[in-house]
Amino acid sequence: MNGIRRGMVLVGLTVAVIVGASIPALATYKDSVAVTTTTINSTTVTAPGNVVGKLTCGRPATMSATWAASSTPKVSGYLVSVYFSDGVVQTVQLGPTATSWSAPIDLYYVTAYSIQYTLTTQTTYGWSTESPRTAAFQC
Question: CA-CA distance, 28 to 24, in Å (whole number)?
Fold first, then answer.
């Protein structure tokens, strides 16, 4: 008796699946949505302008640089990089209003190696741009 019931249930389910699959789906879309456009404005980070490096030989020797401030909005600071001809790079972090920098250096380093400077504009949103290197200086 259970076998007949199971068979009838199986036949009924099979017929239901076949009939359900043969009925076409009815779907209509009545709502419409207006497409909105988004504009993303970006800025270009400009490097400091008119970068001028200088090396004063003597005891102590002094390395220095001056530059024109970047016109980029939201400047958070400037990074002065001093490139030595042996591959060493020294950096100094400065504030957003700085336009000059100087530091003493042992005369040995600037007689043994030449140096060049670059200035990097840093922004509050994490973007930065480095200026081209200056001419090389050596005592």
Answer: 13
